[in-house]
Design brief:
Elements (H helix, E strand, L loop, with lengths): L1 H13 L4 E5 L3 H8 L7 E5 L8 H16 L3 E4 L10 H9 L10 H14 L6 H10 L4 H17 L6 H16 L1
Parallel strand pairs: 1-2, 2-3
Helix pairs in contact: 2-3, 5-6, 5-7, 6-8
Length: 180
């Protein structure tokens, strides 16, 4: 979600318009937006669910929504699906927004994404290693990419091709370190 919000801001800025990315964990950024004119901006607020049941944060978010709406801004929130606000007025604002649920990638999609990154980064990781990583290591794309780079670096350091055996060895050494 964070990457999508940041990409939306980037695209908006490429067209010469103003966009702001604001993580909810930093309420001072929201207060700063409330003090200036926002005419026509894009405002992306990340982690809105962290404001739930915190009166001061919910109040700031409510004020930001109203301020943005009056200024003709586009407002995008990222939040967990089952987020419940204590403020009814904030809940009504949230319900008035278009909601798009992002579903997790299935293993085939994760494999395609990982293979794209491997190709883009010019890594030499066999498809069987990628499949093994997804099945036995994690489905978190950032962690998969990091592990693929680690495998590639190790393979280069020992001047060998990356293999399934090598990947297993590196993954299981990680797991043993966690046990200690």
């Amino acid at each position: 979600k964070t990457h999508l919000l940041q990409a939306a801001c980037h695209e908006y800025q490429l067209s010469g318009r103003i966009a702001s990315y604001v993580p909810m964990r930093n309420p001072a950024d929201i207060e700063a937006l409330l003090t200036r004119s926002l005419t026509g901006e894009l405002i992306c607020v990340d982690g809105v669910h962290t404001a739930a049941l915190h009166d001061d944060l919910e109040h700031s978010l409510f004020r930001l929504y109203n301020h943005a709406e009056m200024a003709g801004c586009k407002l995008i929130w990222s939040m967990h699906k089952n987020c419940q606000f204590s403020r009814k007025d904030l809940t009504s604002r949230q319900q008035a927004m278009l909601a798009i649920e992002l579903l997790p990638y299935n293993p085939e999609e994760i494999l395609q994404i990982l293979e794209q990154h491997i190709q883009q980064d010019r890594l030499f990781i066999p498809k069987e290693v990628c499949g093994f990583l997804i099945k036995n290591y994690t489905r978190n794309i950032n962690q998969l990419i990091s592990k693929a780079k680690e495998i590639e670096q190790y393979a280069c350091s020992v001047q060998k091709k990356a293999t399934l055996k090598m990947a297993k060895s590196l993954i299981f050494s990680d797991l043993h370190q966690l046990d200690e």
